[in-house]
Design a protein that fits this description.
The protein is α/β, with parallel strands linked by helices. It has nine helices and ten strands.
Length: 270
């Protein structure tokens, strides 16, 4: 399936590279929870995102010909679609959903794998996620895996062949921000594949913090779709991701207990 990347139009000196493909934007967005498809289109455009997640079990991308089709407003010619297994609670359901996505999207093999543990917390079921990963890797899928913020588990998924690891910042849809920044930092420091924070971002400062920690990107849905003004929040998130990445690359000053004059007095005339 042909996909036209924004990065081909606007070359970046600091691209996000996932499974060999370069992206200019480090913000990934979901397509659920909006009022209608037009708001989905407008918010996605305002975010500047190039990778857009699609919940295969909840979104029509052609499997229901009599219903509105997401692909009418989010074209595969302009975005990289990232089918996800949201709503799956077993490895078997997740594998089946990925295979359905590949069929619907003409052999598309980049997927976001998530297998949830229960309906109350929406925490990932790591045992079932590992089981699904084993099957999908053998089946030729390129997996971006949703997991908890355990550095050991994150490294295990990388070793299994996942093309990106996506630890949660906080429970899905909670808006609590990054609860364990040192865990995320440890995951980033030990990784050889992209690390993208997924779940828990509530506002622009949360996204900036994730990027300042060295994460390669952030995926969000509720923080934008649930905002009072989704289009304005999408724009804010775009700027926060860019600012956080620039700050990480620039290198922050160390924290100190005491003041340090911004204008040194050495060499002054008095």
């Amino acid at each position: 399936m042909s996909t036209v990347m924004h990065s081909q139009q606007r070359p970046s000196t600091d691209p996000l590279v996932i499974a060999g493909t370069e992206y200019h934007s480090r913000l990934l967005v979901g397509t659920g929870k909006y009022r209608d498809l037009e708001e989905t289109r407008a918010a996605t455009e305002a975010s500047g995102a190039e990778i857009v997640t699609v919940a295969i079990r909840r979104t029509n991308i052609g499997q229901n010909p009599d219903e509105p089709n997401l692909l009418d407003v989010i074209s595969p010619d302009h975005y990289t679609l990232l089918p996800n297994t949201a709503g799956c609670y077993t490895a078997e359901d997740a594998v089946r959903t990925c295979r359905l996505a590949r069929e619907l999207l003409d052999g598309h093999d980049l997927v976001k794998l998530e297998v949830l543990g229960d309906e109350t917390t929406l925490f990932p079921d790591i045992v079932q996620t590992i089981k699904a990963t084993e099957t999908l890797v053998k089946d030729g899928f390129k997996i971006m895996v949703y997991t908890n913020d355990d550095p050991i588990i994150a490294k295990h998924f990388e070793d299994m062949g996942c093309v990106a690891v996506m630890p949660l910042a906080a429970p899905i849809g909670s808006g609590l921000g990054i609860r364990n920044p040192y865990n995320i930092l440890t995951i980033v420091e030990n990784a050889s594949v992209p690390i993208l924070v997924d779940a828990g971002v509530g506002t622009a400062s949360d996204a900036a913090i994730a990027m300042e920690l060295g994460c390669d990107g952030v995926l969000m849905n509720t923080a934008i779709a649930g905002a009072r003004d989704p289009l304005l929040m999408a724009s804010a998130m775009k700027k926060a991701i860019e600012a956080g990445r620039d700050a990480f690359r620039a290198g922050r000053i160390p924290r100190k207990r005491y003041a340090s004059a911004s204008s040194p007095i050495d060499g002054t005339f008095f």
